[in-house]
């Protein structure tokens, strides 16, 4: 049995409707809404996430620096991630101060975004203070929908995971995630994959 457990969540961007659940893919409808925590900045046919000023007080000094340079360069997280050599969600987490940047990350971000490396190194030094960027439960509609999925399916996830893996939890540290887009005749679908190592409870 693989030591990793994975969820795949699929969400169709469409009016609210009941959508059948197929295998391990959960397809739940959601109305599209602009995020308060990031704005869609459109230029040259690309949508670029920028920083909402209202959450800056809860973010590290590096966040405005990185987002301003990203906006000036008109770069998506996907484009930056390809140059950095990391997953785009991991790169976005760096921008929000929710992940630690390696020296290599800092050098590459400096080159891609034309930010002095010494400035980035000073702002990204140290251990991230995670979990301070949002209220719980979340107020932002798109983020709340993810919270709602856990509300609706949390115990179902737990029951199925316990049956497959035993008594334990899925790690959020030995962990990776990715966001993908699928399109079919019914519209666009969001596919979010969560992959975490299974951690059995210790006996003592």
TrEMBL record:
GO terms for molecular function: cyanate hydratase activity; DNA binding. This is Cyanate hydratase. Belongs to the MBF1 family. Transcriptional coactivator that stimulates GCN4-dependent transcriptional activity by bridging the DNA-binding region of GCN4 and TBP (SPT15), thereby recruiting TBP to GCN4-bound promoters. Involved in induction of the ribosome quality control (RQC) pathway; a pathway that degrades nascent peptide chains during problematic translation. Required to prevent stalled ribosomes from frameshifting. Keywords: Lyase. The active site is at residues 145, 148, 171. It comes from Pleomassaria siparia CBS 279.74. It catalyses: cyanate + hydrogencarbonate + 3 H(+) = NH4(+) + 2 CO2. Its EC number is 4.2.1.104. Gene3D superfamilies: Cyanate lyase, C-terminal domain, lambda repressor-like DNA-binding domains. Residues 68-120 form the HTH cro/C1-type domain.
């Amino acid at each position: 049995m693989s030591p990793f457990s994975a969820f795949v969540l699929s969400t169709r961007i469409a009016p609210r409707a009941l959508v059948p659940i197929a295998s391990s893919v959960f397809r739940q409808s959601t109305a599209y809404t602009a995020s308060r925590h990031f704005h869609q900045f459109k230029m040259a046919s690309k949508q670029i996430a920028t920083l909402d000023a209202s959450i800056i007080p809860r973010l590290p000094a590096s966040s405005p620096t990185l987002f301003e340079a990203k906006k000036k360069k008109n770069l998506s997280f996907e484009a930056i991630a390809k140059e950095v050599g990391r997953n785009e969600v991991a790169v976005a987490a760096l921008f929000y101060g929710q992940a630690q940047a390696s020296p290599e990350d800092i050098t590459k971000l400096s080159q891609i975004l034309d930010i002095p490396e010494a400035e980035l190194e000073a702002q990204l030094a140290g251990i991230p203070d995670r979990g301070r960027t949002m209220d719980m439960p979340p107020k932002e509609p798109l983020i709340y929908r993810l919270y709602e999925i856990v509300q609706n399916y949390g115990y179902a996830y737990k029951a199925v995971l316990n049956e497959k893996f035993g008594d334990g939890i899925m790690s959020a540290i030995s962990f990776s995630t990715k966001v993908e887009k699928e399109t079919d005749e019914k519209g666009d679908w969001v596919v979010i994959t969560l992959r975490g190592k299974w951690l059995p409870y210790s006996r003592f």
